[in-house]
C-alpha cells in the first residue's frame, strides 16, 4: 500500500457556447508523479478543449522504459475547485488507466498544502479539510506515469546516442556518410558564392575591446582556438580591424563563443539577395501527399569567406588576434550568402517544383512514397557532390504531416501552427472586473475588423457596470469564447505576406512577455499575424526592466524567425521602453546582453518607441491574469517622456529629418492663394522658371517653395497646426508674437502671415494665463547704456529665482544674461542658500572660461552679490559691479524679463509635475537662445556661433550649414548690427507711455490674477499667473466687477479691475480650449485626466481634484476615486509626489527638533 498518494474530489467548470456545466472528478494526489495529468478518455468523454504542445514530452515507466501511450502532445487548462479554493490549472493529457486526474509533485509544490498522510487530511493554510482516503493500487498507476521533463531530456540524450544506421531509413544507407558528423568536420571547398564583405567608403578600422575571461572561459577559449585552428576555420591575423570576443552561457551550462560584429556590420554594404517568400514556398506544397525534411549540418560554416576579406571579420582575444576563413554567426550578410548558395546548388529542383529550400531547411515532397524516396536519393547524391552534410536528429522522413515554417502541412491542407495562436486561445476566463476590462481593451483594438462587435461584447460590458456584484454568466462565457475565436480568424488574423513589411509590438511585465506580429493591409490598418504570450522563469523575473523588455523582443524574433529572417523590408519593432532604442549604439553590455548580440545582428530591424498606454495588444498579452499574481505591479518610468518627441519623423535621401505626416498634409491640399496658383501654373511648364518660386518633389506629391521656404496652402487648420508647432511645443516655449513669427519665417511662407501669427499668439490661452501682463508703466524708463564691445557676455546681469519646488536637489535658478551683445542666457540650477564663493565659481566655469572676463556685472542686492568677498574678487579681476536699489529692480530690467519668461515656460510645461523643472531647464535655455528677440535681427545662438540650430523638423528637412569663412563674416556683421539695435531699442523705450484703461462689460470673459488666491498647486512659484476664463456677472462700478467662479472655490466673487485682464479669442488660434470629444469606454463618456492637484476624504470616501486635458482651470472638479480608474498612471504619479513632499517635511521637522 502506497502511503504517499491519496484521492480527493474536485470540480471544474466546462464552458461551451450554449451553457456552463459543473463537472465532478476524482483526482489522485501523488508526490511520486512528475506532472499534472488528465486521462485521455476522460477528456474525450467531456469534450474538453485541448491545445497542442510546442514540443512533445516523452513518458517513461518506473523502470525507465517508454510508456505504451507514447508522447504527450496536448494539454488543457481548467479552473478547478477543491473545497472552495479555485485555481486555473494546466493538465497534460495521457492515458491514466483507471485514474481520471493525477495531481503530481509540480501541483504540490505550487499549492503547498499541508498533508497528513497518516490521518488522511489535506489542509490549506486557512481552511482545513478532511477527505476519506481510498488507497489506490499504486503499482499500475505509477507504472503508467511517474514522469518528469528531466526523464524526457534523458531520453532525448539517449536518442542522440542511437547508432546512425537506426536513425536513417534503410533505403538511404548508401548515403550514411552524408549524415556522419565526423565526415562533416572538414574545410569547405572554395565556391563562386564565397562570402563577400564589401565595406562602405567611410569605414575606418577599429580594434575592439579585449574582454577579461574567467578560468573556465580561458579553458574554453584554448579549446576553441585549438579546434578551429586545426580545422582551418580560423588563422592568426594582423588585421587593423577586430571585433570583441566573449563567451555566453547556454541553458545546459556550457559556453558558446561569440563575436560582437556590430561595428563591422554597421559599415558593411548590405546584400539585398532575398530569402524566398514563405507564401510562394507553401503554395508549392498544396497537392503533395508525402514529405521528407532534412537539415544542413554546420550551416554558415559550410561557406568560406572570400579570399582577401578575412581580415574584416577578425576578432581579438587575450590569446591574440585571429581571423575566420569560413562564415561565422553574426555577420550581417550571412543569411543572404547562404540562401544564394542553396538556391544555386538546387536551382533545377527548385525550378521544377520538386523541393523547397529555406536557409538550411530542405523540404522534399511528392504524390507517392516511391516518388518521394527516389527524389530524396537524388537530393542526397547532390548534397554529397557539393560537400554538404545533414544533421540526422533534425531530419524527418516519409511523413504525411509536417511542421514547416510555422505552418502544419498535410495533403491538401495548410493550417497555421496552433502554437502561434495560443497566446489568445489560452486566455483564461476573467474572474474580476479588472480582467474583463483588460480583455475588452485588447478587443477594442480590433473592433473595426469584427462585424457587430458591440453586440458581441455586450454581455462583457454589462459586467463593468457600477454598484453590482461580479457574476460570470453563460452569456458572458459565450461572448468571451466568440471574441477569442474572432481574434484568431479572418478578417482580424491575416496570413503572413513577405512582400509587405512586418511589425512587432513587444512588451514585458514583471511576470511575462507578450508580443504581436502584424502587417498592414492596403488601407494601412495593422492586422495580427500571430500572438505570443509566455511567462518568465524564476530567474528571468529578477532581470532589470530593460533586459525584460529586450527579452520580449528576443522571444518574438525567435518565435517568428522564419518570417523575419532575411526580410526584404526592415522589421519595425515597437517597444514602450525608450532605453532600448539606444541598444544598437556602442555601450557597456552585461553578460546577458552580449549573448543576445549575435541573434539581433541576424535581423534587419528598426526600433520605434511608443508610449506605454498605446501598446494595448502586447501589454495585455504580457499581463494575462494567469501570468500575473493578484498584487499590483510597480510601474517602471521612461526616462524621456513622449512629449519631447515629434511623431512621424523620418530621414530623406540626404539624411535630413522631416515630418512625414505634415508633408503628406501639405501635398493633399489643393486650395492655393492667387499668387501661389499663378506660380504653380507657370512652373508646370518645363521650360520656365521663377526667381522666387520653385517646386520640391516628395513621395506624397509636390511642395511649393517661396524663396526656399515652404508655402502653406490656404487652409486654416493647416496654418494653425504649423503655427502651433512653432509656438506651443516645448522646443518653441510659447514665445511672443515677434518670436513666433521670426521662427516660422525661417521655414514657411504664406500671404498675410504676420497678421495670422499675431492673432494666433493673441488668442493663446496658455500665454494669457501664465505670462506677466506687460502693459507699459507710467514712470519713465532709463535703459542701461550699451557696451561698445563686440564680445559676448562682456556686460552681464545676474539674478536668482528662488523658492521653487525641490528638483534633483535644487530649489533655485541662477540666471545670467548677456546684457550687451547677444541677449543670450545661462541658466544654472542651485539652492537659495548659495554662497558668494559658489556664485564666483559658477561665473568662472560658465562665463570666464568660455567667453572671457566680463567688464561689468549688474545684479540685485541679494547677499550673494553685495558680500565684501564677492565684490573684492570682482574688483581684483577688473569687473565693475552695479547692484540695483532695494525693491526697485528696474536697474536690471532685462534679467527681470528673462525671469518672467522662464517662470512662464516652467508654468506651462511643469505645472502638473513641478518637481521636474530641473529636467526642463536646459530646454528653456535652448529655446531662449535659439529665438529672435525684439531688438535683434539674429538669435543669441547665431550671434554666438554663427548658425541657427534646428529644433523643429520641417516638411522637407534642414539645409546645410554655411562654410566657416562665411560664418565668421556673418558673425562680425551680425554683432555690429546688434550693437546698433541695442541703441535703437533704448531710444524706443524712452518714448513709451502707459495706455488708457478700457472698462470691462457685463458678460465679457476675463482672466483673474492668481497672486492672492490659495489654489491647490504644489508650487506657487510656477503655477499659472491667472485663472479663468471667468464671465463678468455684474458691473458694480467702473473698476469693480462680480465674476462667476467655480462653487468649490468658496471665494468672494468681487474683484478690482487691476486684478482682471481681458480674454482674447482669435480666428487664427481658434477656441481657447477646443471642445473635447470624450472617448466612449464601457458605454460611458470618458475624459482624459491631465493631472491630479489635491485629494480629500469625506464621509469615508476619497475624492481627487482633477485637471482635465484641453479644459480650462475652471473645469477642475472633485471626483470620487472610482471615477478615475482608467488614470492609474496619473494617480500613482500624484501619490509619489505627495509621499516625497511628506518625507521632505518630516526630515525638515527632525532637523528643527535637533536644533
Quick take:
About 30% of the residues lie in helices and about 20% in strands. It is α+β, with helices and mostly antiparallel strands and about 1150 residues long. The protein folds into seven domains: about 5-160, Acid Proteases (Cathepsin D, subunit A, domain 1, Beta Barrel), CATH 2.40.70; about 175-415, HIV Type 1 Reverse Transcriptase, subunit A, domain 1 (HIV Type 1 Reverse Transcriptase, Chain A, domain 1, Roll), CATH 3.10.10; about 420-595 and about 605-640, Ribonuclease H-like superfamily/Ribonuclease H (Nucleotidyltransferase, domain 5, 2-Layer Sandwich), CATH 3.30.420; about 650-770, Endonuclease III, domain 1 (Orthogonal Bundle), CATH 1.10.340; about 795-990, Nucleotidyltransferase, domain 5 (2-Layer Sandwich), CATH 3.30.420.10; about 1005-1060, no CATH class; about 1080-1150, OB fold (Dihydrolipoamide Acetyltransferase, E2P) (Beta Barrel), CATH 2.40.50.
Amino acid at each position: 500500500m502506497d502511503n504517499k498518494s491519496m484521492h480527493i474530489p474536485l470540480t471544474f467548470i466546462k464552458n461551451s457556447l450554449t451553457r456552463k456545466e459543473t463537472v465532478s472528478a476524482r483526482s489522485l494526489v501523488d508526490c511520486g508523479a512528475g506532472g499534472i495529468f488528465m486521462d485521455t478518455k476522460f477528456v474525450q468523454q467531456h469534450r474538453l478543449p485541448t491545445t497542442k504542445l510546442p514540443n512533445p514530452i516523452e513518458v517513461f515507466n518506473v523502470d525507465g522504459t517508454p510508456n505504451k501511450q507514447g508522447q504527450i502532445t496536448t494539454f488543457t487548462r481548467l479552473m478547478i475547485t477543491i473545497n472552495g479554493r479555485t485555481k486555473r490549472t494546466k493538465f497534460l493529457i495521457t492515458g491514466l488507466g483507471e485514474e481520471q486526474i493525477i495531481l503530481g509533485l509540480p501541483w504540490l509544490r505550487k499549492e503547498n498544502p499541508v498533508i497528513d498522510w497518516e490521518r488522511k487530511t489535506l489542509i490549506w493554510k486557512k481552511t482545513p479539510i478532511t477527505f476519506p482516503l481510498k488507497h489506490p493500487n499504486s503499482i499500475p498507476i505509477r507504472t503508467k506515469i511517474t514522469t518528469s521533463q528531466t526523464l524526457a531530456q534523458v531520453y532525448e540524450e539517449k536518442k542522440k546516442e542511437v547508432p546512425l544506421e537506426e536513425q536513417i531509413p534503410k533505403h538511404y544507407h548508401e548515403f550514411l556518410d552524408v549524415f556522419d558528423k565526423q565526415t562533416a568536420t572538414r574545410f569547405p571547398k572554395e565556391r563562386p558564392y564565397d562570402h563577400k564583405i564589401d565595406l562602405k567608403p567611410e569605414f575606418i578600422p577599429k580594434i575592439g575591446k579585449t574582454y577579461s575571461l574567467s578560468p573556465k572561459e580561458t579553458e574554453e577559449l584554448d579549446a576553441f582556438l585549438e579546434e578551429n585552428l586545426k580545422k582551418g576555420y580560423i588563422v592568426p591575423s594582423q588585421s587593423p580591424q577586430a571585433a570583441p570576443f566573449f563567451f555566453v552561457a547556454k541553458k545546459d551550462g556550457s559556453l558558446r563563443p561569440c563575436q560582437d560584429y556590430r561595428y563591422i556590420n554597421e559599415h558593411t554594404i548590405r546584400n539585398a539577395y532575398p530569402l524566398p517568400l514563405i507564401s510562394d514556398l507553401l503554395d508549392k506544397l498544396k497537392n503533395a501527399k508525402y514529405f521528407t525534411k532534412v537539415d544542413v549540418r554546420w550551416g554558415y560554416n559550410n561557406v568560406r569567406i572570400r579570399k582577401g576579406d578575412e581580415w574584416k571579420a577578425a576578432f581579438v582575444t587575450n590569446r591574440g588576434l585571429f581571423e575566420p576563413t569560413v562564415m561565422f554567426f553574426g555577420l550581417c550578410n550571412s543569411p543572404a550568402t547562404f540562401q544564394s548558395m542553396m538556391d544555386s546548388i538546387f536551382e533545377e529542383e527548385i525550378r521544377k517544383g520538386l523541393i523547397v529550400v529555406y536557409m538550411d531547411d530542405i523540404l522534399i515532397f511528392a504524390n507517392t512514397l516511391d516518388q518521394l524516396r527516389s527524389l530524396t536519393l537524388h537530393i542526397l547524391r547532390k548534397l554529397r557532390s557539393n560537400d554538404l552534410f545533414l544533421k540526422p536528429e533534425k531530419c524527418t522522413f516519409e511523413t504525411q504531416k509536417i511542421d514547416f515554417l510555422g505552418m502544419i502541412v498535410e495533403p491538401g491542407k495548410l493550417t497555421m501552427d496552433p502554437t502561434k495562436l495560443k497566446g489568445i486561445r489560452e486566455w483564461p476566463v476573467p474572474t474580476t472586473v479588472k480582467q474583463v476590462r483588460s480583455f475588452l481593451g485588447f478587443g477594442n483594438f480590433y473592433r473595426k475588423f469584427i462585424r457587430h462587435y458591440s453586440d458581441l461584447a455586450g454581455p462583457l460590458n454589462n459586467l463593468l457596470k457600477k454598484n453590482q456584484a461580479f457574476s460570470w454568466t453563460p452569456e458572458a462565457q459565450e461572448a468571451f469564447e466568440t471574441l477569442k475565436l474572432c481574434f484568431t480568424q479572418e478578417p482580424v488574423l491575416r496570413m503572413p505576406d513577405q512582400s509587405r513589411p512586418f511589425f512587432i509590438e513587444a512588451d514585458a511585465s514583471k511576470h511575462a512577455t507578450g508580443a504581436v506580429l502584424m502587417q498592414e493591409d492596403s488601407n494601412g490598418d495593422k492586422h495580427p499575424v500571430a500572438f505570443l504570450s509566455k511567462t518568465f522563469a524564476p530567474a528571468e523575473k529578477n532581470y532589470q526592466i530593460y533586459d525584460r523588455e529586450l527579452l520580449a523582443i528576443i522571444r518574438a524574433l525567435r518565435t517568428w524567425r522564419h518570417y523575419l529572417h532575411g526580410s526584404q523590408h526592415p522589421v519595425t519593432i515597437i517597444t514602450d521602453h525608450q532605453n532600448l532604442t539606444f541598444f544598437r549604439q556602442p555601450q557597456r553590455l552585461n553578460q546577458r546582453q552580449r549573448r543576445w548580440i549575435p541573434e539581433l545582428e541576424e535581423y534587419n530591424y528598426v526600433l520605434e518607441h511608443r508610449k506605454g498606454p498605446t501598446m494595448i495588444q502586447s501589454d495585455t498579452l504580457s499581463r494575462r491574469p494567469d501570468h500575473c499574481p493578484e498584487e499590483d505591479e510597480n510601474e517602471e518610468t521612461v526616462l524621456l517622456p513622449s512629449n519631447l518627441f515629434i511623431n512621424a519623423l523620418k530621414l530623406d535621401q540626404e539624411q535630413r529629418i522631416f515630418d512625414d505626416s505634415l508633408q503628406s498634409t501639405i501635398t493633399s491640399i489643393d486650395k492655393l492663394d492667387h499668387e501661389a496658383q499663378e506660380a504653380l501654373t507657370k512652373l508646370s511648364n518645363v521650360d520656365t522658371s521663377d526667381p522666387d518660386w520653385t517646386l520640391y518633389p516628395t513621395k506624397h506629391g509636390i511642395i511649393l517653395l517661396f524663396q526656399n521656404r515652404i508655402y502653406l496652402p490656404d487652409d486654416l487648420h493647416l496654418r494653425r497646426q504649423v503655427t502651433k508647432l512653432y509656438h506651443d511645443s516645448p522646443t518653441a516655449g510659447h514665445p511672443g508674437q515677434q518670436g513666433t513669427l521670426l521662427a516660422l519665417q525661417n521655414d514657411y511662407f504664406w500671404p498675410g502671415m504676420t497678421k495670422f501669427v499675431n492673432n494666433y499668439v493673441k488668442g493663446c490661452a496658455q500665454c494669457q494665463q501664465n505670462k506677466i501682463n506687460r502693459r507699459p508703466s507710467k514712470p519713465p524708463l532709463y535703459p542701461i547704456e550699451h557696451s561698445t564691445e563686440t564680445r559676448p557676455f562682456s556686460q552681464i546681469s545676474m539674478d536668482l529665482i528662488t523658492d521653487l519646488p525641490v528638483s534633483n536637489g535644487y530649489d533655485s535658478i541662477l540666471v545670467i544674461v548677456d546684457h550687451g551683445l547677444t541677449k543670450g542666457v545661462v541658466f544654472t540650477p542651485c539652492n537659495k542658500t548659495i554662497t558668494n564663493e559658489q556664485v564666483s565659481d559658477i561665473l568662472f566655469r560658465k562665463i570666464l572660461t568660455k567667453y572671457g572676463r566680463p567688464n561689468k556685472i549688474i545684479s540685485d542686492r541679494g547677499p550673494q552679490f553685495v558680500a565684501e568677498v564677492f565684490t573684492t574678487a570682482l574688483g581684483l579681476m577688473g569687473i565693475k559691479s552695479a547692484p540695483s536699489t532695494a525693491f526697485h529692480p528696474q536697474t536690471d530690467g532685462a534679467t527681470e524679463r528673462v525671469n518672467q519668461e522662464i517662470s512662464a515656460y516652467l508654468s506651462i510645461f511643469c505645472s502638473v509635475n513641478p518637481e521636474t523643472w530641473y529636467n526642463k531647464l536646459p530646454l528653456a535655455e535652448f529655446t531662449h537662445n535659439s529665438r529672435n528677440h525684439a531688438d535683434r535681427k539674429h538669435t543669441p545662438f547665431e550671434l554666438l556661433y554663427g548658425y541657427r540650430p534646428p529644433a523643429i523638423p520641417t516638411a522637407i528637412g534642414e539645409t546645410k550649414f554655411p562654410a566657416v569663412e562665411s560664418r565668421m563674416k556673418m558673425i562680425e556683421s551680425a554683432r555690429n548690427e546688434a550693437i546698433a539695435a541695442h541703441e535703437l531699442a533704448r531710444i524706443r523705450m524712452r518714448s513709451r507711455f502707459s495706455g488708457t484703461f478700457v472698462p470691462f462689460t457685463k458678460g465679457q470673459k476675463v482672466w483673474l490674477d492668481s497672486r492672492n488666491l490659495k489654489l491647490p498647486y504644489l508650487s506657487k512659484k510656477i503655477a499659472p499667473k491667472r485663472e479663468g476664463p471667468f464671465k463678468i456677472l455684474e458691473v458694480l462700478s467702473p473698476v469693480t466687477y462680480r465674476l462667476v467662479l467655480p462653487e468649490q472655490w468658496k471665494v468672494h466673487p468681487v474683484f478690482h479691475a487691476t486684478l482682471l485682464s481681458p480674454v482674447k479669442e482669435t480666428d487664427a488660434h481658434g477656441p481657447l480650449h477646443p471642445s473635447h470629444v470624450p472617448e466612449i469606454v464601457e458605454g460611458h463618456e470618458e475624459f482624459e485626466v491631465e493631472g491630479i492637484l489635491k485629494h480629500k476624504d469625506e464621509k469615508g470616501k476619497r475624492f481627487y481634484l482633477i485637471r482635465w486635458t484641453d479644459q480650462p482651470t475652471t473645469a477642475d472638479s472633485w471626483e470620487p476615486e472610482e471615477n478615475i480608474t482608467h488614470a492609474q498612471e496619473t494617480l500613482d504619479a500624484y501619490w509619489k509626489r505627495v509621499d516625497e513632499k511628506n518625507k521632505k517635511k518630516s526630515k525638515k521637522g527632525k532637523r528643527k527638533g535637533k536644533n
